[in-house]
Amino acid sequence: MFILSEIRDTVALQPHTFGLDAAEVLARELNKKYANRILQDIGLVISVFDLIKCSEGKVRYGDGCLWYKVDFRLVVFRPFISEILNGKVKSQDEDGIRVSLTFFDEVYIDVSQLPAPCAYDFSRQKFFWSPSLEEGATRLQLMDSPFGERLYIELDAPIRFRVEGDEFYDDEPGPPKASEGVRVDLTREPKKPPYRIFASIAGQGMGPLEWWEGVGGVENQMDE
């Protein structure tokens, strides 16, 4: 789930920090710049892990700062494909489910990645799985199934999912505002997050944890 990524950057230290430990100040400045940021094709930065090497500080002409070239490592959140993670259901609609990991909310489970047979109940605004029906059951059969046989996916429910892929999006500046005398295109697609994960809950042991409570074989398999 977490990896180390090596980065090189140039950092300026202000004069009021000259009497302090340079390594500590550099780490603090790097955390200000990188922590909780998305780096394209790398992932979500959690914090600076360590400093690998650092040049001597140099003063630039007309600038009272000391400038350092620093090689350092970052703790980055970027789960690998097929990794199993636990989160909580943040929201859902007929297109799929959004899952939160508390520190990261851009996990999406498409409707095609739900266990079969599964359907979206518009009256309750949530998905349900009906394991008593055959995999090829139609929506009509699912909606006619007894409520007692439906396993609903509840909001905020702990859920186990498998990572299927991820996507980075380099956001471009938006169009000028209408107040500036330029027409705004209201047909534009909703803004995409800079980084998102695609997941699946199809398979044994996947989905809301309450579905598998008391199923010892599955729990033991997931713990291995």
UniProtKB/TrEMBL annotation:
Its main location: nucleus. It is found in: Nucleus. One of its GO terms (biological process) is transcription initiation at RNA polymerase III promoter. The keyword rRNA processing does not apply. CDD domains: RNAP_III_Rpc25_N. Pfam families: RNA_pol_Rbc25, SHS2_Rpb7-N. Residues 83-212 form the RNA polymerase III subunit Rpc25 domain. One of its GO terms (cellular component) is RNA polymerase III complex. InterPro entries: NA-bd_OB-fold, RNA_pol_III_Rbc25, RNA_pol_Rpb7-like_N_sf, Rpb7-like, Rpb7-like_N. Keywords: DNA-directed RNA polymerase, Nucleus, Transcription. Coiled coil: none annotated. SUPFAM superfamilies: N-terminal, heterodimerisation domain of RBP7 (RpoE), Nucleic acid-binding proteins. It comes from the Eukaryota. Belongs to the eukaryotic RPB7/RPC8 RNA polymerase subunit family. This is RNA polymerase III subunit Rpc25 domain-containing protein. The lineage of its organism: Eukaryota, Fungi, Dikarya, Basidiomycota, Agaricomycotina.
